[in-house]
Amino acid sequence: MQKLIQLILVFLLTLPLALAIEGNDTTEGDVIRYKTGYITINATDGDIKTQSFGSYFSTLVRRTDVLGWVTNLKYNFFKPNTPDLHLPENNSYRNFTSITFDWSNATDPEYFTPNYLFEIWNDSSATNINMVNYTLVETTNTTATTETIVGEGTFYWRVAANDSEYNSTFSNLRTLTIDQTLPANFNLTSPADETSSTDTTPVLEWDSSTDTNLDNYSIEISTFADFSTLTTTENSNTNSFSSWSSPLDGDTYYWRVRAADKANNQKLSNTTFTYTVEASESATIPSGASGPSTSGGGAKPFTLNIIAPEGITIYQDDVVQIPLLVTNPSSIQLRGISLAVSSDAPEIIPTLSTTRISSLLQKSQQEILLTVNTANAPIGTYGITINASITNPKFNDQFKLFANLLEKETAGTAITIEQIDFAKQLFNGNPECLDLSEYITEAELAAQAGFGAKALSLANNAVEVCNKLLEQKKVFGSITTQATLFNRVKTTVTSRTFLLIAPQILGLLVLLGVIFHFIRKKKKNL
Q: Which of 260, 398, 455, 502 could bridge across to 443 with cysteines, CB 3.0–4.6 Å?
């Protein structure tokens, strides 16, 4: 009976360990979990038996070539997945040699962390190695390396992912070209430099630039000689261009061409040309005509005008200042305006407040001051000539002014003050003339200093220039008409005697009219 009880106890203790273990763990594949303890697992064919007790694990292998227990078994049979290359992209071009190569990390089926082998080859068949790096450790998400390539040419690179047992997977080869050579020199050809035309979409041509990897040409257009601001940039794959994104406006343009290769090496054309788009309507300038300005004559697409008083009055042994307005009535901007003034008599010494105007926008003006020193010149009429030289567009103009030199005289204070007040009203009513206000201030100072004739001359000149400016802009108003009429009356009436007898003359005219009316009426009654 005692032996029976012992057998039952042994059976009960060994029964759980003798049960077969079957099934799969769905979370981690073909893995079977069991609690720590002694367990024996037999393969169905009886060739492999695995035992585990605590942290000890061993496998019994019964093969014709292997027989015995194997402990601390390692396994690594699968290659990592292929690395996904990022940069540089395939068939890339670079004009520098220090290149950063980047790729996504590879994954390993057995959860090992791979390291990487990086290679650059001189040929697509990967037989002539350029450089290799065996020591690239994986970093988070992506792995990268920066390598310096020696020389120019086309190179081929790839990456291999390796596990701890040197199972490797190579990426495809990618092509990278290093090109540090600039495109060859070339020249602009057409239109010729300093061409003027009404064509707003001209055909531009230049010599071809030779380069193995030439990509395209960029045409740069600017109204500034230093190209500090570009008006437009156009592109062409050949050595000519005509497909403008928008027509050019009337102006003078600088243009040049930039050749670029696939590695972004760039070369500017050896020359820069100018091209002027002429206005569609030409301004006719009368040659030799008196008035606000005169120039060389003929029809021109652009011109320069100087507005000045029609008749300048100067006095002996005096210095007179005359306001002038330099205007650009053209539809294009004028650049590099040089001015020079001279007289036809050495005793008359004219000077300008400025002899250089860098630029003058279309339909705009700039005020300058003409100073005339009469010194000891005799009484008479003198000619003053202003020569203008314009750089862009390139042309010359000439303006002739005439000045009447008179003896010094004392102008009536009332007339002077009246004309100065009238000039103020004229300027306040016409903002276009406000730039001339400083000459009215000078007239007031001259009047206060007792130089009545000079004050009156300054006021008259300012008023006349204002009138001519308004006339040119066709904005004459009633006050301008009054100014013109006033100047004419003032030229005719030079003494205050006329102002005293004017009412008597008017009364006499009225009386004569009444007498004439009664005489005609009496004749009708007869």
A: 455
* Dihedral (Cα; 82, 84, 90, 95), 10-degree rounding: -120
Quick check: 454 and 314 in contact, CB under 8 A? no
pLDDT band at residue 405 using 50, 70 and 90 as cut-offs: confident
Do 293 and 307 form a contact (C-beta atoms < 8 A)? yes
Contact 130, 86 (CB under 8 A): no
The answer to whether the CB of 332 falls within 8 A of the CB of 276 is yes
Per the structure block, which two tokens stand in for 279? 């206005």
DSSP 115-165: EEEEEEESSTTS-SEEEEEEEEE--SSEEEEEEE--SSEEEEEEEEEE-TT
Cβ-based burial of 7 (10 A; exposed 0-12, middle 13-18, buried ≥19): exposed
Backbone angles phi, psi at 270, to 5 degrees: -65, -25
Among 196, 91, 102, 199, residue whose Cα is nearest residue 141 = 102
C-alpha to C-alpha distance for 466 and 426, rounded to whole angstroms: 8
Q: Provide the 8-state DSSP code for 399.
A: E
Q: What is the mean pLDDT of residues 303-325?
A: 78
C-alpha–C-alpha distance, residues 451 and 317, integer Å: 13
Q: What residues contact residue 248 under an 8 Å CB cut-off, 6+ apart?
A: 200, 201, 202, 221, 231, 277
User: In which element (H, E) is residue 197 found?
Assistant: strand 195-197
Going by CATH, does the domain composed of 284-492 fall within 2.40.30.200?
no
Q: What is the pTM assigned to this prediction?
A: 0.45
521 vs 44: which has the higher pLDDT:
521
84-178, what's its fold?
Immunoglobulin-like (2.60.40)
Q: 188: which strand partners?
A: 206
pLDDT tens string 481-516: 333 333 333 333 333 333 444 455 555 665 666 666
What is the residue whose two structure tokens read 């005609």? Answer: 520
Q: Which two tokens mark 131? A: 């450089």
Helix (H) or strand (E) holding 241: strand 240-241
Q: Do residues 52 and 43 lie in contact, with contact meaning Cβ atoms separated by under 8 Å?
A: no
- pLDDT at residue number 499: 40
Task: Compute the distance between CA of residue 87 and CA of residue 407 in angstroms, rounded to an integer.
Answer: 90
The encoded tokens of residue 64 equal: 């014709």
CATH architecture type of domain 188-277: Sandwich (2.60)
pLDDT in tens, 87-127: 999 999 999 999 999 998 888 776 777 889 899 999 999 99
Measured over the CA atoms of residue 39, residue 43, residue 45 and residue 49, the dihedral's sign is negative
Strands (DSSP E) contained in 361-419 are 364-373, 380-392, 395-406
